[in-house]
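Please review this pair:
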Amino acid sequence: MKLFTDQLGTSHSFEFSPQRIISLVPSQTELLYDLGLEENIVGITKFCVHPYHLKSTKKIVGGTKKVNYDKIRLLEPDIIICNKEENTQEIVEELRKICPVWVTDIFTLEDNFQMITDFGQLFDKRIEARKWNDKLTFALSDFKHFIKDIPVKKVAYFIWKNPYMAAGSGTFIDELLRLNHFQNHFSNQERYPEIDLEKMDDKGVLDLILLSSEPYPFKADDGYEIASYTNNTRTILVDGEMFSWYGSRLLKAFDYFKYLHTSI
């Protein structure tokens, strides 16, 4: 019997490595694929868009906040992969009646490396996991060298509209903002605070406003509206996947961040 502990500290025991996997987190579905586990994935969410072909080859079992328990049960999974932020505790508890549920908790780059290591051990993909961590370690070092002389800019990173919401502290987005030498205007507030535009920036302290492509798909017109409350601070549409997806997606994110800085 092999014993494993997930990032919430929950212990799991398996006689053999889990073979039938359901992933309820898009970025972790991509990571499982990149670790060579495509044949083991039996169920995904409708938001699992990378790689795209999985949507036509795997069973869709719902979203991240609402799942079809009957579909999941019929797939007879050995394990279900969730995330503390993406999936509710209610969903996790209900799923545990079906099979073991592995929950990740990602706020830092170190958490991300640990998740990849954990998956490598859990699914007997240690060599693949080590290769991915090595590639990410090299890319991270390269990006830190790239960014070291770029001045810090004060930014607000919006994720939602009606009501407006931004990324605060205790989020993976905040971690990547700091990596990019972006000082988060809302780092004094936790998680994803609602924002009153009229009170946000009446003194022109912001250098940039970043509007994410997800979960709300901001458009240029939204930028004009927000800028009208902030002394016409420059607004930039950014790829939300690059700032919020963890796992193997980070390798592409570092190149994207370089592009972003050269275009500012």
Q: What stands out?
A: The CA atoms of residues 167 and 192 lie 5 Å apart. The two ends are 53 Å apart (CA to CA).
